[in-house]
Here is the input.
Amino acid sequence: MAGRVKIAQIFFIALLALIGIRAVDLQLVRPDTIISQAHKRFDHTIQLSSQRGSIYDHSGQPLAISLEVKSIAANPRLIDKPSGAASKIARALHMDQNALKKRLQSDKYFVWIKRQANPDEVAAVKALNIKGIGYYNEAKRFYPESESLANILGIVGVDGQGLEGIELLFDHALKGKPRHIEVQKDGLGRIIYARGLPSDEKKDGNTIWLTIDRRMQYIASSKLEKAVRDNKAKSGFVIITNPLTGEIYAMASYPSFNPNIGSYKHLDGHKNRGVVDVFEPGSVIKPIFVSWGVDNSVFKISQSIFCENGNFSYHRTTIRDHEGYGWLPVRDIVKYSSNIGMVKLLDPVHADVMYSCLKEFGLVGPTGLDFPGEPAALVRNPQKWTSVDKANVSFGQGFAVTGIQLITAFNALINGGMLLKPYLVEHTADASGKETQSFRPTIIRKVISEHTSDEIVGILTSVCAKGGTAEAANINNYQVFGKTGTSQKIDPLTGTYSRKDCIATFIGGVIDASGKPRLSMIVNIDEPHPYHFASIVACPVFKDIVQSCASIMDLKPSITVARKGAQDEGI
Amino acid sequence: MHSNDQVAREMDFDFIFLMTTLALLAMGTIMIFSASYFLSKELFSSPFVMMKKHLFHLVIGTVLMAGIMRMDYRRFNARPFVLLVLASAIIALVLCFVPGVGLSGGHAKRWVRIAAFSFQASELVKIALIFYLSSYLAKKSKRIDDFTYGVLPALLIVCVCALLIFIEPDFGTAATIAVWALGILFIAGMQWKHLFFICLAGLPVGVLMMILEPYRRARLFAFIDPWKDMQGIGYQIIQSMVALANGGFLGSGLGEGTQKMFFLPAPHTDFILSVLGEELGFIGVALVIILFGVWIWRGLSIALNTNDSFGFFLAASSICLIGLQAIINMGVAMSVFPTTGIALPFFSYGGSTLVTTMAISGLVLSVSRRARL
Here is the structure.
């Protein structure tokens, strides 16, 4: 027995020694490793998200606001019967039962059931009275204008991060500065200890005020939608700007999407076509070349060109006009949109010079619009132009531009020659309403003289007058000016210009009693059927929109100015 | 036998053992105050409620210990007394499951309420088994090498008690009692091969009991790699290690520990050593280990130096039981063993445990009066 007691004594001392060794290990050898490892595991940074800033139109109407909604989540470890709970919840929320079941059966401490649920859904789940279900406040972005502005504003992701459009480009400013707190959580994921105070003051996001007018935007997008549908077209866009400042009043794309329903099914509908799509401008390029030629004394506005009666053989190809013309003065080449006239007018001009003209008008590079995704326009290196290429360029084929480039160039043409940077954001303000950044009209360069600009406005007014190609755009009591363009699309199958698929463009503006151009607008309809001429497809849209916007913009009828246009036409 | 010298010695408690016991009690009381401060504030809105309860338990324990140590322990070696205690312990275990009498803490049914007192039935079982085994082995120590007549009857009684405790459920205590009883039988002179076969038969049962209950299995896995599920069951192990690591060599100072502020689960009971380790550092932990080492060594030496076998078994089984509990508790706090809820004798908060521990110490002290050291 004594021997066995000795064994017991040694056994106990050995175990105590083992514990002592462990104490040396934990307390003396590697305490720092253990502490840092535990901190790494238990410390979390939680973000107290700041309120995302709202987006307003220029008059202060809300276009994008963040509302607090409930999200439904679960702690699967607290749910007694996951499969029963899953089927009940799935029924209440019309969700896939199996996917939910899988989530609720996991051994996680936190899973989302439905984020940004509507109040009815929250009430339905609450009524089920299931243990382990939690409700969290989250911000949901809400867009009161829905489809009308979706392509400009873009969308935010479920965590409130900007994904497209203005939401993306100004994400940083809108987001604000979230607060971070270092916390420790206990075994149940509850926050049990915060290390120190919040890193710094949280800052709610800045608000953004657009140059957009909500009402004009609505008019533009609804008229555009109607036009695209009526003409069985593929898509279209409208941009309305202030030609004297470069502000964008409206920028509508069709098809669009409803940003309040988080659906990504029609990604095509997310495009802001006026900014990101390129197309061949067609005849709308003609006044630009003419103004440049006149301004640089390459030719005179009164000069006449023989238009070959509609059929002109040029370097083994035939250039045609839609009607045969004889001798036409330069102004009528624009008015009747004679391709032959343009080719002959620009024949003596070198390709490089024509290219630099396009470049001068900002048609080669991005305009610098405050919107993401603006492509460089597709104009080939002039050194590689053949004579036929050059001829095509002179009436707007063989190169591509964006809608925003075209309206920017057009504004320079009609506002006295100033190329202005287009802009969408008027100013930003912080959460307290103090202006943080303001955007003013920016002159990029002067491209033509005021005199030439006035003359061009006169010519373009005649285009919209009786007998001009854009007669359908004319509006009683206002001086309307503009230019149509119907460009053939390249058939992707044959690689040649298609006979039936065209892009119809009208670019124009209005002068009211003030004597100044009050608005400019580009209307672009892609693949209209059966009629594909801009004069039939695009001009009525312009007219329709201007008439609807007249009272909003306070356009004063001006017979005298209109008469002045008519006189120009008579000369 | 009855010389003057002998009479004088009879009143002489073993000084070292008594001092060690008092030192452990003093340290334990101080640590209870520190460890329960915030918890008591949270639960009873006064930081001193738990401390006051502990002091009350301490008074009862002291009365009991002082009474027992002055008694002649040989009077306990009476068959009717031993059987009465054993029977009441088993009845108490059964009563735990009776609604009205039994009290449940959490999902476990471990307490019995009689009049205003409630106590943990398994603590009474410990005392009863000490008496029973000591009495039984003192009588049968000559036949203990016989399995059927020596080992088996004792083993059956122990198994009944362990099983009842196991279904409370309190796996830790049941296992502790089983291992302890085997140890006593081993000290009594059980054959090595019998011990070997019992272990061989008992091991699968123990492992199965451990594996079949999900929370026990989880604790086992958490013990193997606490960092893997540090949000779940590994949490308490890691928090205990962090407490000890925070303490370092000198500790953060008495009352200065932060891990007891709801990071450590059960800072006042199962993980009181972690609180001590944080506040008193390695020095404090080493002191506790040394005190228990001296207490166990000295206690077993007392057993060795008695000249009657009942006294021998009484002291040896008492020391082994308390020693085993101390080692398991410290091992759990240091993550040497998987987590199980065994209190640290003299330190952990809890009336039944403290009073039992002190009563058992009284028994050893009583034996020490007759030991020649």
User: Anything to note?
Assistant: The mean pLDDT of chain B is 86. Strands of chain B lie at 102-105, 108-114, 117-120.
